[in-house]
Specification:
The complex is a heterodimer of chains A (320) and B (280). By secondary structure, chain A is of the alpha/beta class. Helix content of chain A is 41%, strand content 20%. The radius of gyration of chain A is 20 Å and the shape is elongated. Chain B is of the alpha/beta class and 280 residues long. Chain B has one domain: Rossmann fold (3-Layer(aba) Sandwich), CATH 3.40.50. Chain B is globular and about 50 Å long.
């Protein structure tokens, strides 16, 4: 996904002279071809995220579209005020490429995990937050970032992630995509969590439970109308994200449900990272398993909500 | 610690234009009865020389591409900037009377997109120089002749981001970038020497790749002279360290930290300010 993203920056920059790239001392040889062919628009800065974001804002105020590439957690935590003021307040066309969103850097420990990036960026007016599910979607997404007004955060996964979206799936910023339909629960995912949901659907089908999967590659602005439409007729909703439960996709959906005036019997659960710093190393996959952000976790959550539903309505005939 | 050969003294006389600008600032202050008075008075000659003699701009076309860019990174000095921008015709002088009001465009810190002539929203310290580097890099890429001037404060120079930016400007050898330090040696709590000593300041900037000059920041002729020869050295960004007096121009404000930021300015204080700035 990282390679697809950076390849696209190069392709887009070849076609559009407004595009600049700024790196922050990351990845030897990154965008070598970009640097060789368009050296005036390739800038490699040091480990100085505050300055990088300010510079990017200055370039964007002059009419440039600036792609900034570094590690997600440093790009969001370290220079948060620059994101708020230089990018969002000025509504500049800067695109943040956050490497290693979520638990990707598990072996490197909690200093390198971007587990609250979505939550903190959601709180900023004008910020757009994108978390694609795979490299294919990344290729479809990148062209949409060129003309979009205002700052955009692009959350990268690990790389080599399985391709789970069909090649003909469209992409528009601000839209959600139903990946399958079923009446027992809606599973709402962002980023690579989609893969886990698709896998869970197979197990659940075998058990006689059919789920709708809504893939949310744009966490902000959230496609609230479509979400409400899909959630309204279904008795249970489960959100799945590789992110803290404090303030991410699950919180956004919870806010929607709380204000929607749905049947009070609607069941809701969030899967994500609890309110802790990671205590173990290992791998992205092992930490996802630790926190239940996987197919088994989704199956268990849907099953549990369905059982609760059955108890509550005492018998068949639950409205669908 | 090296001692700078240049200093600006308290109590020295100002010419009629410098007094008139300060009177205008008092007028803006009167509208809201609040503002960073000492910080604005410290800046008057720097802004006056920039807008009278140095910057190329067209108030009728504030976004003219060929203009020199000027960022007041120490945004709390905005009373002085507003007085000058209004005088130059960037916006209607009637806006000054609506300072900090809900129906006005002029707030306690300057905002991009709201105030014509303001190139970047500032107020939180340590942002303007990096934005200015972006402007300067773009000008270089386009082969454009315009220059970028960024005015920072001494208290602001406590921010690490200022030095990240300095390192970057030095590396890029941005000789179309000029930093002006309003060095009045007082920050909000106490003197810079007590709070976070910046000395040796010129040597610091030079070590980061800048060509440095020092000037009495209230000496109009000296400011003109130094700013007429930027870049100070080809291939390097310039820094002009302007030795100033916080609150310059009014005896009871000069060096008085009570006037760094004032709210609830009284009628007596306004009268006192105006009479001290009498154009006789």
């Amino acid at each position: 996904m990282r390679k697809a993203c950076l390849d696209m920056v190069y392709e887009l920059a070849k076609r559009d002279e407004r595009i600049f790239f700024i790196g922050s001392d990351l990845g030897v040889g990154t965008l070598k071809q970009f640097k060789a062919e368009m050296p005036g628009r390739f800038i490699m800065e040091g480990v100085s995220e505050q300055n990088v974001i300010g510079m990017a804002a200055g370039l964007a105020l002059e009419g440039r579209i600036v792609y900034v590439n570094t590690i997600a957690t440093f790009l969001t935590r370290r220079c948060f005020e620059q994101l708020a003021l230089d990018l969002c307040l000025h509504r500049t066309n800067v695109r943040l490429i956050g490497n290693g969103g979520g638990l990707v850097y598990a072996p490197l420990g909690p200093t390198h995990l971007a587990i609250e990036d979505i939550a903190i960026l959601r709180a900023l007016p004008h910020m757009t937050i994108l978390a694609p599910a795979d490299a294919g979607e990344m290729r479809r997404l990148m062209p949409a970032t060129v003309e979009h007004a205002g700052p955009v955060y692009i959350r990268l996964a690990k790389g080599g992630d399985p391709i789970v979206t069909p090649g003909d799936l469209p992409f528009a910023i601000g839209r959600i995509y139903p990946m399958r339909r079923g009446g027992d629960a809606v599973v709402v995912t962002t980023g690579v969590a989609l893969g886990a949901a698709l896998e869970a659907a197979k197990t659940l089908t075998a058990e006689g439970l059919e789920i709708t999967i809504l893939h949310v590659p744009t966490v902000k602005p959230l496609d609230t109308e479509a979400l409400l439409d899909y959630m309204a007729p279904v008795p249970a909703v489960v959100t799945v994200e590789e992110h803290t439960l404090m303030g991410g996709l699950g919180s956004a959906v919870a806010e929607l449900i709380a204000e929607a005036g749905f049947d009070p019997g609607k069941r809701f659960a969030r899967l994500g990272i609890p309110d802790v710093f990671a205590k173990e190393y290992g791998s992205q996959a092992s930490l996802m398993d630790r926190y239940g952000i996987n197919a088994a976790g989704i199956v268990a959550a849907v099953r549990q909500l369905s059982e609760k539903r059955s108890e509550r309505v005492t018998g068949a005939g639950a409205a669908r | 610690m090296s001692v700078s050969p240049i200093a600006s003294e308290r109590g020295t006389a100002l010419d009629a234009r410098s007094r008139a600008i300060r009177r205008e600032i008092v007028g803006v202050l009167a509208a809201a009865r609040r503002g960073h008075v000492g910080s604005a008075f410290s800046l008057v000659e720097i802004l006056r020389v920039l807008y009278d003699d140095v910057l190329r701009y067209d108030p009728a076309q504030p976004r003219w591409r060929g203009r020199d860019r000027c960022i007041l990174s120490k945004g709390h000095g905005c009373l002085a900037l507003y007085a000058i921008l209004a005088e130059k015709g960037f916006f209607d002088r009637a806006e000054l009377a609506k300072f900090c009001r809900a129906d006005g465009i002029l707030g306690g810190h300057p905002e991009y997109g709201k105030v014509p002539g303001v190139e970047a929203s500032t107020g939180s310290l340590g942002h303007g120089l990096s934005i200015g580097i972006g402007f300067a890099l773009n000008a270089r890429y386009e082969g454009a002749k315009h220059r970028t001037f960024v005015i920072i404060g001494d208290g602001e120079s406590n921010e690490g981001s200022v030095w990240e930016a300095a390192l970057s400007a030095g590396k890029h050898r941005l000789d179309n970038l000029v930093v002006l330090v309003d060095y009045n040696k007082q920050q909000s709590y106490a003197t810079t020497a007590e709070v976070q000593d910046l000395e040796p300041l010129a040597a610091k900037w030079e070590a980061f790749g800048f060509a440095a000059a020092e000037v009495d920041g209230h000496d109009v002729a000296a400011l003109r002279a130094v700013l007429s020869r930027v870049p100070l050295r080809p291939g390097r960004p310039s820094v002009v360290i302007c030795h100033t007096v916080k609150g310059k121009g009014v005896d009871f404000v000069e060096g008085n930290l009570d006037w760094h930021h004032k709210n609830k300015v009284s009628d007596e204080e306004l009268t006192g300010l105006l009479s001290a700035l009498e154009i006789g």
